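Subject — a protein and its fold
Fields — amino acid sequence, structure tokens
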Amino acid sequence: MNTKFIALLVTVVASFLTPFMGSATNIALPSIGREFKVDAITLGWIATSYLLAAGIFSVPFGRIADVGGRKKVFVIGLLVYSIGSFLSAIAPSAELLIGSRVIQGIGGAMIFATAVAILTSVFPPSERGKAIGVNTGAVYTGLSLGPFLGGYLTQNFGWRSVFFINVPLGILALTLALWKLKGEWAEAKGEKFDFKGSAIYSLTLLFTIYGLTELAAPLLIAGLILLFAFIAYESGVEHPVLEIRLFRKNLTFSLSNLAALLNYSATFAAGFILSLYLQYVKGFDPQHAGTILISQPVIMAIFAPFAGWLSDRIEPRIVASAGMAVTALSLFIFSNIDASTSISLIVENLVLLGFGLALFSSPNTNAIMSSVERKFFGIASATVATMRLTGQILSMALVMLVFSILMGKVEISPEYYPMLIESARLSFMLFTVLCFIGIFASLGRGRIR
């Protein structure tokens, strides 16, 4: 079997794992909440802790992979991810579950930072969009099976089984990578690693997100000061952890990343909100709720490879911008949700949302990876992952902020359902605005061919 096929196979298995975990966990959250007797904001942290850890470490690990070898980082990431999954499955409290999710997120960061970079290293430009499309399809297949299988497992074997199932899957991907994936890719070998820049970057993200979620103004201000310090410092370093010059001198790269950030900020928490809505307000069990939520990622999995193929033939900004517009429309429809909203309308709108996201994601990633030189593939791949993860973190932070303002830290019970619905409506309206702005970022990126 040739290197291209093996690279695609191994990265597809790994790229399936992490989104599967995320969407399956969303379905399990109400069951976790009932066992540990925690409020909606703590449930939000069980989801966000994983994303925050992955976001903090993706860029540093992307740079480490460029310098020390992408396969090496990828393989270690699979091992750490599997350990984090096991620890999450046996966690005796919400606090230890959050801690275990951080370990899982660190492993996830190592996978995120290298999977697309490995693909981009072995596939020529003429085949890259198709390969990224297949990989994106695997991501969405993980998202698709997550709600359904997560609901089934939670319903029949308890929420811990959602984490246990990731252990053998992680070991399978690890075995495939060690046994079959030959070669190593390290185009920046010999260059120095930027420890100071990595530390500033990590603290910037931590302070900003925690400050936003907890309404802590001092932390938010500290996060913004660190952001400016990070940009200034990285601009003067010979081998920075994040190539700021890529953003300054490459309009396609900077606007494509901004579009990705806005898209994920506007869409990720939809699954979290709808999982709570379907299980609390509508009274569905986890398996039924998962079956409803599967409609969005199934459409994404079907159309993502087609959108990637299309972006090899048509300017990616045209395909991606159309996807952003469709996504904005679906979010606006969700902003009118209430207790009497029919399940058929929710499913139809999830299909619309899935189609919009499929049209956006593969072409946007193709535009980013095709706009940089080979030696920047690792950091570009990590930047793609960081925009996705930062967007997902901001999406959850925004929802948790809305929940804390409208509901406060209360355990969700029938008397608070009207406030839960109001929180959902306001969140979806804010998401619509973000996605609408994203259309213009996507259109403004220019031509790549």
Notes: The chain has a mean pLDDT of 86. Residues 195-236 form one domain. The chain has two domains: 3-194+237-443, 195-236. Residues 29 and 256 are 32 Å apart (CA to CA).
